[in-house]
Amino acid sequence: MSPLVSSLHLYDIANVEGVTADLSHCNTPAQVASFTGKDELAACLSPRKPGMTRDDLFSVNAGIVRHLVAAVADHAPGALVHVISNPVNSMVPIAAEVLKQKGAYDPRRLFGVTTLDVVRANAFVAARRGLPVADVDVPARPKAAAAAFTDEEVEELTARIRDSGTEVVEAKAGAGSATLSMAYAAARFLEASLRGLDGHDDVYECAYAQSQVVPELPFFACRVKLGRDGVEEVLGSELRGLTDYEARELEALKPKLKASIDKGIAYVQQNQEAALN
Q: In what residue span(s) does the Lactate/malate dehydrogenase C-terminal domain sit (predicted)?
């Protein structure tokens, strides 16, 4: 539905044609085309062609991300790459290592889409305080009394945001996980990227990207300014003036996030060595 989209390529290993036919009936500007299987991946990416726990997902998604990103490097090396597959903390380092090996790595053009955490936080905080959701932006620390929380409320909300994926899985009684909210979050971030590409000067979102916000972590999720080349600026000021609770949570996070990053890097290195042997 976005007026910023002129061409939409759908790719999967099977069953793409029906979805493409369905979408092509919408009277929107986007021209929809389908691509199925390994042999058509290059055509999908080429601009010259027409139109469980998260960690349990690692073994499934690591190979998919590695394969897709390698194709992006070969056929669309200047593309903005949005990684939303879990565990994102490991998948983005995998993508970065593959792009480096291909000589196509530009840290401004690689993002982990963590927008679902942001929209959940905004929704839960707005509901708790009875605020208009459009006025709530959790990464900012509003000074309004209506947005103030006790320490207990902060811990409760943090736990709910962190575990909300499980909340959906349990509500669906094992019949699936978060799909609609994930799609909404992906659409929101993609729309922001497109506005940045279109030259808008006020496009800000949170993303998991290469940064020096936390020196010992090469990737971290924080607010970024998006522009024609992807990330124009990483805004790390939100990590200044942390509360005691936030500082403790950050310190507890660091070794876990570092392990996830190292796991992704090691995966690519191990597979490269295996291919050479």
A: 134-266
Query: What's the pLDDT band for 219 if we cut at 50, 70, 90?
Result: very high
Number of domains in the chain: 2
Do 12 and 85 fall into the same domain?
no
Looking at residue 143, its pLDDT comes to: 47
Same domain, 121 and 32: no
Q: How many other CB atoms are found less than 10 A from the CB of residue 199?
A: 9
Hey, what are 33's tokens? 């085309």
Asked if residue 206 lies in contact with residue 120, where contact means CB atoms within 8 angstroms, the answer is no
Amino acid at 61: N
Show the domain range for 36.
1-51
Q: Are residues 18 and 154 in the same domain?
A: no
Q: Residues 106, 218, 83, CA angle at the centre, nearest 5°?
A: 55
Listing DSSP states for 93-149 in one string gives HHHHHHHHHTT---GGGEEE--HHHHHHHHHHHHHHHT--GGG--TTS----GGG--
CATH number of the CATH domain containing 147: 3.90.110.10
Question: What pLDDT, on a 0 to 100 scale, did the predictor assign at position 95?
Answer: 97
Question: Is the same domain home to 70 and 183?
Answer: yes
Residue 157: other Cβ atoms inside 10 A: 16
DSSP state letters, 139-203: TS----GGG---HHHHHHHHHHHHTHHHHHHHHTTTS----HHHHHHHHHHHHHHHHHHTT-S--
Confidence of residue 242 (pLDDT cuts 50, 70, 90): confident
